[in-house]
Each structure stands twice: as structure tokens, then as C-alpha cells.
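User: Can you recover a sequence for this backbone? Please restate the input before giving your answer.

Assistant: Of course. Working from this structure:
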């Protein structure tokens, strides 16, 4: 596996394919604080908080039957950006794909929001589907862990639509159309997983894979890492991985229980401290990233950008 950087929390990594537009930052899943019968899904990307890639599909996938294959997918496709001076303008389509359509690489499914504005500045534009079942936002927001801006894609929907029995598994992927083929640039489930890999090559290999292959391909790697960072025995590492559900790299969410990582992920969860203690067997925390204090009380919840 090679030496492990002391910076195992994932603070330092190269952008996927050298392009920050393809960099998935965080994935959140939690009950709406304004309606307990609704669930909020938020995917953030591009730590430079500029327009997203117009040739990529950004996707939140949901498995509700335990086979680690998408049964529901929200696909986000962004237009070519235009500029008014230095101010960017971009639009986005949102498609909802079900069953077999949710598993293909292109942006399949029914359009639920079409050609809507991305909010780079000013008040956030909130979009509601006919009948109000789905609510959507895309635009610049403040990262919930760091004092920097990112681009958020947020969807709120009736919790019953997830089909949780009793839970679901949620992850996100960014796939780029390049030279006539689809290339998996990045993916995200559990927070801070990029720190599990000591080289960009290892991380790229992981990011291009599918969750249903995580355990056979990466279990040994993670056990080795935990032995090095926390002195875990093989049995202790396996027990910790099983308890968290670290592999496969998907968030498990039971909406009947409060969202708090690793049951989903709330915007106030201190996942940096959690991940550091996980890897060091409780020996080392990660201080200095306090919970955000200026979250919005209503959708899209993430703080206004600076």
C-alpha cells in the first residue's frame, strides 16, 4: 500500500482528471428540519465554486432493496456557462431515473426541472415541481465544514418516495463524456474517504469503481491502513468497518431514526473528528472544524456564500 500520509483526513488531494469542476466534495442525507415527512439530499462539488462541467453528469443514486444497484437516481446536467464580465451564468436540467434507467451512465429519466438558473450570487433560487413533491436548488453555498464556497445540488422529496425498508443506501457520482466514452471521474458516499488512499492513482482507481465491488477490492487495503494509523488487529478493523458500514462506500439512511452520521449525514455532523477517531482507534481527534452556526432555517439550509 505504501506509506500513509499523516494527513489521513483527506484535506489534500488532486482534482479528478485535473479538473476541480469534477471534484465531489460532500454528500448529506437528513430529515427536513421543516417537515419530518420529507428528506433532503445535498451533493456539493467544485471547491472553486465556479460553473460545473457541461459535459458531465452529476448523479445522486439510491438503492432501496440492498443489491447496491441504483433504484432511483437524480441526474444533474449543466449548460455551457456564459459570463457577464466576471459573473458566471449557468443553467441545469434535473432528471429522475428509476430502476434500469437509474443504472446507465447518461442522464436518463423524466425531466422534473428543466433549464433552471444556477444561483451564483444573491438570494437562492428555489424551484418546486408541479404539485410540490420535489424541491430543488443549485448554486454557490458555503461549505458546512470549511469557510469556503462550493456548488450545491439539493433536492427535497417525500421520504415515502425513497422506499426505505427500513433503510436506503445513497451515494453520488460524477461521470464525464470524454472522447466518445463515459469516464467515471469521482464518487462519494462516506465522508473523508479520499484520505484512505496514499496516492492519486489509488484514489482514481477507487473513484472509477462501483460500490458493489468495494469489499472484494478494498477491504484488505482499509484493514492495512487501520493497522498503521490506529494499531488495529485484523479482527478489530473488520469489526469497526462492519459497525460503520464503511465498505461499500455508500451512506446508509434509516429515516425512522434521527440523521446523525453514520445514519445519513447532517450538516452539523463533525465528520472530521469522527473519521480521525475511527482511523486511530479513538486515540486522535481532529479539532478546529466546529459545526456551522449560520445555516439557513429553510431549504437549501447551507449558509450563504461569502
Amino acid at each position: 500500500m505504501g506509506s500513509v500520509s499523516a494527513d489521513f483526513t483527506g484535506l489534500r488531494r488532486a482534482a479528478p482528471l485535473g479538473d476541480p469542476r469534477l471534484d465531489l466534495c460532500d454528500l448529506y442525507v437528513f430529515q427536513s428540519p421543516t417537515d419530518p415527512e420529507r428528506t433532503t439530499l445535498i451533493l456539493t462539488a467544485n471547491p472553486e465554486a465556479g460553473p460545473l462541467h457541461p459535459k458531465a453528469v452529476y448523479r445522486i443514486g439510491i438503492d432501496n432493496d440492498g443489491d447496491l444497484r441504483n433504484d432511483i437516481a437524480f441526474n444533474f446536467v449543466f449548460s455551457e456557462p456564459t459570463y457577464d464580465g466576471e459573473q458566471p451564468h449557468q443553467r441545469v436540467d434535473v432528471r429522475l431515473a428509476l430502476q434500469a434507467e437509474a443504472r446507465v451512465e447518461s442522464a436518463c429519466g423524466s425531466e422534473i426541472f428543466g433549464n433552471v438558473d444556477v444561483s451564483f450570487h444573491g438570494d437562492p433560487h428555489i424551484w418546486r415541481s408541479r404539485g410540490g413533491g420535489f424541491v430543488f436548488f443549485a448554486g454557490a453555498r458555503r461549505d458546512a465544514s470549511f469557510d469556503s464556497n462550493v456548488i450545491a445540488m439539493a433536492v427535497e422529496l417525500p421520504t415515502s418516495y425513497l422506499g426505505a425498508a427500513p433503510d436506503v443506501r445513497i451515494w453520488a457520482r460524477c461521470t464525464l463524456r470524454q472522447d466518445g466514452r463515459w469516464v467515471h471521474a469521482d464518487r462519494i458516499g462516506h465522508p473523508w474517504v479520499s484520505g484512505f488512499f496514499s496516492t492519486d492513482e489509488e484514489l482514481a482507481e477507487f473513484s472509477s469503481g462501483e460500490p458493489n465491488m468495494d469489499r472484494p477490492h478494498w477491504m484488505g487495503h482499509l484493514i492495512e491502513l487501520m493497522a498503521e494509523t490506529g494499531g488495529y488487529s485484523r479482527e478489530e478493523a473488520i469489526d469497526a468497518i462492519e459497525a460503520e458500514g464503511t465498505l461499500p462506500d455508500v451512506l446508509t439512511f434509516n429515516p425512522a431514526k434521527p440523521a446523525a452520521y453514520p445514519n445519513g449525514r447532517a450538516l452539523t455532523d463533525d465528520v472530521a473528528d469522527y473519521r480521525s477517531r475511527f482511523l486511530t482507534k479513538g486515540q486522535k481527534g481532529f479539532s478546529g472544524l466546529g459545526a456551522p452556526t449560520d445555516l439557513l432555517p429553510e431549504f437549501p439550509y447551507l449558509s450563504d456564500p461569502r
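That completes the design. Confidence is low (pLDDT under 50) at residues 1-10.
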